[in-house]
Design a protein that fits this description.
It is a single chain. This protein is mainly α. 55% of the residues lie in helices and 6% in strands. It has 10 helices and 3 strands; from the N terminus they run H-H-H-H-H-H-H-H-E-E-E-H-H. Helix 3 packs across helix 5 and helix 7 runs antiparallel to helix 9.
Length: 247
């Protein structure tokens, strides 16, 4: 911690320090921003309605906040569940640090949500159309096609795909597998099918022909400048290719 950070922490109250340290433990920048907004809204409500801080809140205060979100703010029930989850996660953090002895959110009932998702599964024919829109004449194009094939053939998340390293590719009893960390920290292992393995093998062969650095800790897929690919940029590219394929 540098001098500026030490001085900053001296100016913070104990509650502010706990909030800051809680947010710093979140890996995702997006999650950090969402949790910061959620905590700020909750803390502001406690201060305006009850003139207390979060460490003095009880189950009754949490229920009052839940009703406030539903009746006054007109939030959807799914949104309220997310906001309550943020607050509960913060209290669990305070419990783990022995700042509090109990989580006031522990017995707060969340809204039951019906499974009414509107997502439509992509068909195999549509996946093939997407694959066929991508050229493999250049190494970078081959990389993009390999990435998209891995995405669909293994079911991994985009963030998991972008964090793959050379050492993520392993051999296990005659099969080639990808080993990667999932959301939450669990290690997942997936066997590569013939299509995924063929493109990954070809990509690695062409990659090593132009770059002899194949250290296990090296990021597998990189930008042209050698950096890790940004998640939003890749998602934007995927959408562009999908439109090109007529999806």
């Amino acid at each position: 911690i540098n001098k500026t950070e030490r001085n900053l922490r001296r100016t913070l109250s104990d509650n502010e320090k706990h909030r800051l340290l809680f947010l710093m433990e979140l890996d995702s920048i997006g999650s950090r921003a969402e949790y910061k907004r959620g905590l700020s809204e909750f803390i502001t409500y406690l201060r305006l309605e009850f003139s207390i801080n979060e460490r003095l809140a009880t189950r009754e205060h949490i229920n009052a906040y839940k009703n406030h979100l539903l009746l006054n703010k007109k939030n959807a029930k799914a949104t309220i569940n997310k906001k309550l989850a943020v607050v509960s996660s913060y209290y669990q953090y305070l419990l783990s640090k022995r700042v509090l002895e109990e989580n006031p959110c522990e017995f707060i009932r969340r809204f039951r949500m019906a499974n009414t998702g509107t997502s439509v599964a992509i068909t195999r024919d549509e996946i093939e159309r997407l694959y066929n829109t991508i050229s493999t004449t250049r190494l970078y194009d081959l990389q993009i096609k390999t990435m998209i094939i891995l995405l669909f053939e293994t079911g991994m998340r985009i963030s998991e795909l972008l964090s793959l390293k050379i050492g993520s590719i392993k051999r296990d009893f005659g099969d080639y597998i990808l080993e990667f960390e999932q959301k939450g920290g669990a290690i997942h292992r997936v066997i590569l099918n013939e299509l995924a393995l063929s493109y990954l093998g070809r990509f690695l062969e062409e990659l090593t022909a132009v770059d002899s650095d194949v250290a296990e800790e090296k990021i597998l897929f990189q930008t042209r400048s050698g950096r890790q690919i940004n998640r939003k940029n890749f998602a934007r590219l995927l959408n562009t290719l999908a439109k090109k394929a007529g999806l």
